[in-house]
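Today's session is about reading a structure prediction critically. Students often jump straight to the picture, but the first step is always the sequence itself: look for stretches that repeat, for charged clusters, for runs of hydrophobic residues. Only then move on to the predicted structure, which in these notes is written as discrete structure tokens rather than atom positions. Here is the chain we will use throughout the hour.
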Amino acid sequence: MKTKTSNKLDFSILDSLRGFASLSVTIGHCRALLFIGILEYSTMYPRQAWSVFDYLKMASLYLTRYGGEFVIFFFVLSGFSIAYSLRNKPPLKGFYFRRLVRLYPPYILALVWAIAVHLLLVLFIPDVFKDQKSGYLLKRLYGSDNFLNVKIVVSNLLYITRGPLVGQFWSLTHEVIFYFLSPLLLLRFKMSVVISLVLYIIGWIVYGQLHAVENIVSAYFMGFNLYFIIGILALKNWDTVCKWVHMKKVVLCLSLLGLLGLIIFLRYKYSEITRLSALITSIITIICVVNFHTHKIKIKLLSWIGKFSYSLYATHIASIYLFYIIIQLILNGNFPFKSTYFWLLGIPFCCIIALIAYTLVEKKTKLYLDTLRK
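Below is the predicted structure for this chain, in token form.
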């Protein structure tokens, strides 16, 4: 099969993948914040009394636990996309300006949105930040009533994220570091690959399987940088990678299921995202990018979500808390945390808020960037 070259890539096809990743992260957080949890549910309703249907319900909930892996999915896609953007060595001033326009206005709107939801929590649930015995979702807010502290606001403005309402912003910090360094990484790419791999191995030895490294610089250089590098490698060796991982659709489905099975096993063993599961996710990402292109796969719903995936990712945590506030007011303080299905309503709610945010800001930044490119 004659594969496409990097000059003929259809990046609109990647919208389906971005949509899938952002939606999966949103689903995972809705389940985690709006449902009491699988362990607590099994304590309240002993497994001895479960039917086959109950086991199937709980098994399906386990499939919503992989938000961390889908963040790695985003990192690899970012490496791939930025390598494409820099393939013709554009002026750095223009590159950085375009990245600033693309990322910062939607980010500011998401931060303002989180502040607005924080104020609504203060207004309608005033004791939530002081009650350590709050419900499953609200106990995460204990002690975070200083979210509007000037230092915290400035920290968030600088992508050093603090506060549960912007918890998902941690990955944007690493995205920004990569964008800043990407021209340098590509300038001495072979050296960058070697250094990234060595630092990653050192990080694995020092910190172990898990990515639980609090220091941002260490977390990036000894962990997350490698996933961006993998995306760059795929773009720079596109024709070769296509020959390696292009598959028939049946083989593609079986391969993805097998790799997903490995990730599920690792999650079961370690409970958190591991370096090994992140590397497997990187492989899955490259397989999807190649085969979505070669098979011309476009999933309309996911492509549509992919267009506002950044706004969805940036706003969805605060939107989940707003959903909670609204339901609390409607049901007089009795949020149905025990329901294995009610939390699903939070997903379209987050998508609607994100679509509004996209229309207000992100869509305009995209149109402005289109005019700059022309």
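Discussion point for the tutorial: DSSP finds 15 helices and no strands in the chain.
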